Amino acid sequence: MKKGINWRMEPVQAENKVLLYIYDDVSEFGEFDWNTWTYKESETSAKYFVKKLGEIPDGQTIELHINSNGGSVKEGVAIYNLLKQKENKKVGIVDGVAHSVAFLILQACETRKMGVGTTALIHNMWMFCSGNATQLRKYADDLDDMMEANRKVFMERATITEEELMTMMEEETYLTPDKALEYGLIDEIMGGTEGKENNEEMMEQLKQMRQQLNNQQSFREQIAVLRTSTGLEENTILNLFRGGKI
To answer: Is the pLDDT reported for residue 217 higher than 90?
Structure first.
């Protein structure tokens, strides 16, 4: 990418798709121009996305590439919804990092991928604020409401409970591709075809084992047997139960 470009739209006519890149912090404003004393246009703002998404014709696949530390929640949520409203097929790919609201934007894509060595970050929102005690308490309540709405985005396809997601956000959790896939926050690890095949084989074995155990042992005893047989952690097996995968 050229120097200074943090957002790009690149048509690929042969494959009938358009490549989009978010390679900077999500921001309503661009850099400050000291010559004009005004902010330059941000190429990672919702306003910029409105303009660029409008240039993409129906029927073309949108391939969104992300390498961003996140940024403005307001702008990121708007970009997420703009992508959701766009009827084109959308594939999201994490090339480097998808932290904070950048990872939320990824959730707008029907297919979500992370490359090997990439990371995601989920955490609670924060803001700068000032005021008296009553105003500060209201800011805290407002953040709780915004976080509840934020979690709904991830819970649409997550395989973990909302309580588990809340805990991870409170602890500011970094996710490897493997963890993100396990929690249902992505659909595929790029370059991980062999691992995917092995995972499907393991899932089939787990299903068969559970069927054999159903009429013989209690739920707790089944969990213990599955842990011993597969080496998986108890929480992982419970998540598979909750997601209906075994």
So the answer is: no
